[in-house]
Amino acid sequence: MDLLVPTEKDTCVSKEELDNRMADVMGKAGREIEELRSTLSAVIRKLEGQNAVIKGQNDVIEGQNAAIERHNSVIAAMKGQIEHLTTAGPRHDEESTQVAFSVVSRNTFGNVTEDMNIPFEITYTNIGGGWSSVGNAFMAPVSGVYEFTASFRSQGSVDNAWGHIVHSHDAGQTRLASIFGGGPDHGISGDSNSVIIEVEQGDYVSVQLVGNGAYIYGDSSVTFSSFSGFLLFQ
C-alpha cells in the first residue's frame, strides 16, 4: 500500500484531490485483498479435494487390512488343523495295519476224544498272514481289538455238533463263545456265534470241537462250516 508523504510540492493539494488519491489507494488495496481471498479459496478447495482423496485411500487401506486379518484367521485355523492332524493323526506303522482272514471246511469232521481245532481246508482270505492251516488257528500279527465269527452244521444221523471259539494266551485258554448244532433228536440244524475281543500280538484264536464224540457235517458241493475274523482297531 502506498502512503502519501507530503512534500513541498504537495503542500497546496486540494482536499478533493487528496480524497481521490485516498480512494485510489483503498480501491487498489481492496482488489489485492479480493485476489488474496480468491487464491486462498482455491487453495482451500484444492486441500479439501486432496483430503477427500486421502480419506478414500484410507478407506481402501482399512478394507485391505480387514481382508488381511480375515486371511490371517483362516491361515491360523488351517495351521491348527494341520498341527492336529500331525500330532493326533493315525500312526501309519501300527494303526493302518490291515488284518483279515476267512476259511471254510466242506468235510465231515468229529468223533474226537479230546477238544481239537477244527481243520478248515479252504482259505478265502488271509490278509496279514495270521491264519495257519497247519495249526488250524489264527495268530494275531498285531495287538488290537478283533471280531471273530464261526458257524457249522450238524447232521441228524450222527451225534451233536458242539464247539467253542477259543482264545489261547499266556495265561491259558478261554472259551469265548459256544456253538451248538443239535443232535440226532433235532434233525439237521446249524449254529453260529461271534465275539469282539482284545487280543495281544502272538495270541491264538481257533474253533475247537468238543471231545465227546461230536461231529460237524460237511458236503463237497456246499459250505456249512466257516471261521473268519478281522482287526477292528489297535
Task: Explain the overall architecture.
It is a single chain. This protein has 234 residues and is of the alpha+beta class. The protein folds into 2 domains: 9-88; 100-233, Jelly Rolls (Sandwich), CATH 2.60.120.40. The chain has one helix spanning 15-88, and strands at residues 100-105, 109-110, 116-117, 122-127, 131-132, 137-139, 144-154, 162-169, 172-180, 189-199, 204-209, 215-216, 225-233. Strands 3, 5, 6, 8, 9 and 11 form a 6-stranded antiparallel beta sheet that branches. A 5-stranded antiparallel beta sheet has the order 4-1-13-7-10, with no helix packed on it. Strands 2-12 form a two-stranded antiparallel sheet. A hairpin with a 4-residue loop joins strand 5 and strand 6.
List keywords for this structure.
234 residues; alpha+beta; Jelly Rolls; 2 domains; six-stranded antiparallel sheet
Task: Write a concise synopsis of the structure shown.
With 234 residues, the chain is an alpha+beta fold. The protein contains one helix and 13 strands; from the N terminus they run αβββββββββββββ.
Topology:
Elements: H1 15-88, E1 100-105, E2 109-110, E3 116-117, E4 122-127, E5 131-132, E6 137-139, E7 144-154, E8 162-169, E9 172-180, E10 189-199, E11 204-209, E12 215-216, E13 225-233
